[in-house]
Amino acid sequence: MQRGMIILGLVLLAGCIPKPDRPAPSPQPGPQAEALKPDKVLRQCHADLARAAVAFKPLPDRTFDGGCSAIGAVQLLDIGTPVTNLGAMTCPLAANFARWVQEAVQPAAQRHLGARVVKIESMGTYACRPVNGQAGNKLSEHGRANAVDIGGFVLEDGRRITVKSGWNGEDRRVRDFLRAAHGAGCGQFPIGLGPDANALHHDHFHFDMGRGPYCR
Questions:
Q1: Which residue intervals define the domain Extensin-like C-terminal in the entry (predicted)?
Q2: Which residues of 18-33 are buried (b: 16+ CB within 10 A; e: fewer)?
Q3: pTM of the entire structure?
Q4: For residue 117, what are the β-bridge partners?
Q5: Are strands 214-215 and 191-193 parallel, antiparallel or unpaired?
Q6: Are 83 and 123 in contact (CB under 8 A)?
Q7: 37 vs 52: CA distance, rounded Å
Q8: How far apart (Å, rounded) are the C-alpha atoms in residues 18 and 123?
């Protein structure tokens, strides 16, 4: 009996002695972590552009003073519709822009104006400046090659439609086309601004890949 009590006591005492900590197993990267790698995202974006029959040229990563950069950017060469004044664009911006033109702008022009768009007039992409060009504001998405501004459209019948004159112009068909293009852009890009946003956008649409959604 006494021997049994001694053995029981030793067992209970052993249970109270702390065991040395074992190092936790290192987490292994899974498919989701792999999918988030920037190089894999960029390769997928390039593949998406190629699949959409978009001709483009990858650009080297660049950084500039003032926190500006063009990382993972491309130069769009042919999206099926000529576009003027396009500079460096992040690949996601370029992919969304090409899709907007192909799937929204062209159908809207046919529907409201009865003609195809043969040229889109861009007001630029990359520009190292603060929001609205006003000192003291945070860095614009243009400063990250992550925004594009569109000022006008030229139709196959020779008509030139501008945001400045057409948004509140007399031709209802032009107004409807511009609002359809702007509204579709708001669905395609996280941020969409136009003449109703503020006076600084009275003559163009601004689309960017910043934190949204915001449409005005």
A1: 44-216
A2: eeeeeeeeeeeeeeee
A3: 0.80
A4: 155
A5: parallel
A6: no
A7: 23
A8: 70
